[in-house]
Write the structure tokens for this entry.
Amino acid sequence: MADPLLIVRDLSMTFLRRAGLFGRRTHQIRALNQVSFTIEAGETFGIVGESGCGKSTLARCLLRLLQPTGGSVRFDGVDLLALGDEEMRRMRQRMQIVLQNPFSSLNPRLNGFDLIAEPLRTHMELSRKEMTDRVASLLAEVGLSGEFMSRHPHQLSGGQAQRIALARALAPNPAFLILDEPTSALDVSVQAQIINLLLRLQRQRGLAYLFITHDLSVIQHISDRIAVMYLGKIVEETASEEIFADPQHPYTQALLSSTPMPDPASGGQRIILPGTAPSAANPPAGCAFHPRCSEVMEQCRTVFPAPRHTAPDHQVSCHLYDHAQ
Amino acid sequence: MAILTVENLRVRFKTPFGAVYALRGIDFELAKGQTLGLVGETGCGKSVTGRSIMRLLDDNAQVTHGRIIFEDKDLLQVDDGEMRRIRGNRIAMIFQDPSAALNPLFTIGQQINDVLRAHASNTREGRQSQIVELLASVGLPDPAQMADVYPHQLSGGQQQRAMIAQSLAAQPDVIIADEPTTALDVTIQAQILDLLRTLQRERAISVILITHDLGIVAETCQHVVVLYAGRVVETGSVAAIFADPQHPYTQGLLAALPRPGSRGADLTVIPGSVPSGLERIAGCAFAPRCEHVMDRCRGHQPALAEIGSAHQSACFLHEASGDG
């Protein structure tokens, strides 16, 4: 079997924030705490978590829009953290990102043509004719007609703008797309259109996706494997179906139970978590979830649970599973 | 029995681009003690409906037609003084963004005190204990201390609880909640929805829950009104609408949702997008996107018709199949 496309090992990101009079006190915010996972070529890896869990920081660290403070990222066999700025810029042809709100990520002064041509100009030498052909075929790929070349972002609906953002990300022919809440700002009927488009592009281009969202229904639909994050850590990782069939971490169970399902008959007992997620500036000792956990034990307050395999393809960080392997 | 009835409500907005027809004839009834979900996508008119009931529409809005009956009075006809007494006292509203709805310059306690002073006669001490009671009833920790904090010191979920406490202060009969959990994380959303369910049950408050999330409707409401382009396209009990949706738009919305077990399959898509509201629509507003469209749909507007017990839908298909 070929090596995975992306290998992330013990990735950590600690922000230093100054506080107090004249900023004399500093405190650390551990946004990412030893995060490890791999993504195979052509597969979709989903990351789900609530605000502040570190999922967007993770996206930025992978692209080195932020410089991680620890760990390693290997993409296609290359150690990204060892690359110089110019080499990293070239590497970004192969790894692109699409963000939640296209109206804030797309330059409002550019029309559709320039928005899509811009990355082509940065990354390759093309004649005007070749450029126009490329932009037209990219527009067609995302389901838009040639007339969108002359439209500016304010003339687009949310779904159309997200299609332009996708065409722009696809322009340099990436092998890997990071999708950070790409459908969260869209209405249900438009969300379905974009999800179908993402599935089709993946089949046609053999793309690998890192799909980041807070929406479990969306992520289980599109992902092959899913990782659940809580306060800078992956607490559970397994195949997409397994997350729904056999959620093992108490946080995953609560998250699933909290997600409203469009089925009045599904009733049943809801797990309602007390309190809110703690701040990454002042995380609890031991397992960060223990103050909200209904199954908390003595060691949870002091010792962070190491990840355990409860099945060959199911990993969970929780003391309830300490007996496993 | 209906506590609130909306009849043929029509609202338009003056804009630089021309008149936008936001509501094009809305009808529904809120039964006493019921939670009614007002559901639809962006621009369908669900928030405008809520604001029309509260008479909180912007200056460029004009109610051109209709009645809103609350206890034998038409809220569109009562004078400003009476409306002020009804608003808050009898009908309260909760908004999506509590940080924008709470005043940042006053403590939570002061803001609830204002409501109590305006709407109920009581002594200062009496109000103080009522404030603590209210904050406790919405599940805020240390309610006595919470009265003295400012909104920015609270998390998003706590702010929403504080706003709910404020809206309960005048003991309203009806609460209109406009996307009350949309800005919150799912585990916090579950807490707030649970709180709303408890309050509704214990205080027999009637609730209009405005949301775009069909999952929230299924878990929280007893009755649903589905809006499309400023009209009610389907209404009925939650059980009927979710198990047996009849209008093609409702069917499309439910089919477009990703569900467990459907991984990787193409989702059902409603082609096209919603009309802008700028154009006057002669027939059924959904006709351009509807897979069952017939000639008459383009020229005539279907009326809401009974298609089952407490289940109505506005579509010519029901007549064609002989149900109506």
Notes: Residues 305 and 312 of chain B are 5 Å apart (CA to CA).
